[in-house]
Amino acid sequence: MTEQKENWLKGISFFILISLLIYSIYNCSRQQENYTKSLKEESIALVTRIENSGKHRKLKYYFYTDKKILSQTQTRNYEGDPYDLIGRFFKVKYKKDDPQENEIILEKELELDSITLIRAGFTKTKYYFYDAGVTCKYIEKSKWK
Length: 145
Description:
Helix content: 25-40%
Number of strands: 7
Radius of gyration: 24 Å
Strand content: 35-45%
Number of helices: 2
Mean pLDDT: 82
Structural class: alpha+beta
């Protein structure tokens, strides 16, 4: 009889453990969904660099609201080489009251024109580099900042 009670207690313990695991997974996904729904405003973000900290890589990016907002996210959910993202524009969603709470959408790179980028707060800057190998002249280039 004690062996039956032990098996019964093990079965109930296993059922409770599995139930708690399923509930925590469901609750976590629901919290992430609610957080994503709370981000109402949208803007354009420019990815600037990748920082390695131990085993994790952090993607650094910025976007403009009334001011420049610097932010970062983990790259562990991104399925490609994160270094390919540097210098590219993506959509970012943020809270209007607190733009520090934001989320960058990395699934699709935005193809933007200059008017859209200027409205989003970016400016085009000129820079020069010296072509020592071929022409021995300074070559003018431009990039978005």
